[in-house]
Amino acid sequence: PFDVLIVGGGPAGAAAAVYAARKGIRTGVASERFGGQVLDTMGIENFISIKETEGPKFAHALEEHVRDYDVDIMNLQRAKALVPGDGLIEVQLESGASLKSKSVIISTGARWRNINVPGEHEFKNKGVAYCPHCDGPLFKGKRVAVIGGGNSGVEAAIDLAGIVGHVTLIEFDTQLRADAVLQRKLKSLKNVDVFTNAQTTEITGDQKVNGLIYKDRATGESKKVELEGVFIQIGLVPNTDWLKGTVELSKHGEIIVDARGQTSVPGVFAAGDATTVPFKQIIIAAGDGAKAALGAFDHLIRTSAP
Ligand code: FAD
Q1: Is 134 a catalytic residue?
Q2: Which residues of the sequence carry a binding annotation for FAD (predicted)?
Q3: Does 161 belong to an annotated binding site?
Q4: Which pTM value belongs to this model?
Q5: CA distance 203 to 226
C-alpha cells in the first residue's frame, strides 16, 4: 500500500506529490489527465517567479518535477469511489483496479460550466475566457461582456470594470442573483451596462471574438453587442461527484477542509479547486497541495507504526 495516495494531477496534486515524496514515504498519484486545467490554458502570467509561460508547458514542467522523485505516477486513471477503512483507505478506479493507502489526498479540481452556444468553443482563449483574475489584463481598455449575474459574474464585472474599457453584464433571469452589496457597487460604475432577461445565443468572431448576440426574452428580439472579450461566469463545478456520501461536501459540492487540508474522513485530505478553499488559482492550488501533503505526513507520524 501507499503511505500517501494522491488522486488528481493538477497543480495541487503535483505539489502534494513533491512534498510527500520528499519525506521519503511511499507516494502515488492517480489522475485522469496529468496537468489538469492548466492544459487548457494559454498564457499564464501570475505564477510568481515565472513571468510568463503557457499552459501545456507549465503542465509538462509539473510532471517533470514530480518525476524527479520516486513517485508512482498512474495516468489515465479515473477514480470512482473512496472507501474509508480502519487502517487503509481504498480508492476504486473506473478501470476496475483498486489502490490502498494509509492516507489519501484528493485534488480532483473543478471545471468551468460552459454556456454551450455557437462560438464558445471556437473562440476559447481567443476572446472567450472564464477567469477574470487570469485573463482580465489581456483586455485592458477593451470592451467585454460578462455572462452570469450571480455573485461570481457580478464580482467579475466589478473587477473587470477597473481594467477594461467597458463591461456589458448579461443575465438570463429577470434579475441579478448576486448579493445586494455587490449589485449596489455594480450600479455605481459608469462603464458597466446590465442586461437582464437576456439569453446569450451566439458568440461571434472571425479569428477572434468580435461580438455577442443575445435574445431579449421579453420581446424575442435578437441584439448584437460589439466587443473583444466574453467572460463566462455561470459556475465552477468541483469534480467531486464520486465522493458523495463518503466525504462531507459544501452545498456547492466542494470538499470541506480545515486549515491543514483535513476532510471529514480521518486520513483523507484534500487540496485545490475541489475544496472550499477560496479563490481558484494555480498558485493557491499548489500551495494548498503542499499543505495537504504536510497535513497527511503529520497524520501518518501520529497514527501509523514506523
Ligand atoms: P485541476 O487543475 O482541475 O486538476 C485536477 C486533476 O484531477 C486533473 O489531473 C484531472 O484529470 C484529475 N481528475 C479529476 N477527476 C478525477 C477522478 N475522478 N479521478 C482521477 N483524476 C481526476 N489559474 C491561474 O492561476 N492563472 C491562470 O492564468 C489561469 N488560467 C486559466 C485558464 C483556463 C482556461 C482555466 C480552465 C483555468 C485557469 N486557471 C488559471 C485556474 C487554474 O488552472 C486552476 O485553479 C488550477 O489548475 C487548479 O488546480 P487543481 O490541481 O486544484 O485542479
Answers
A1: yes
A2: 3-18, 263-273
A3: no
A4: 0.94
A5: 10
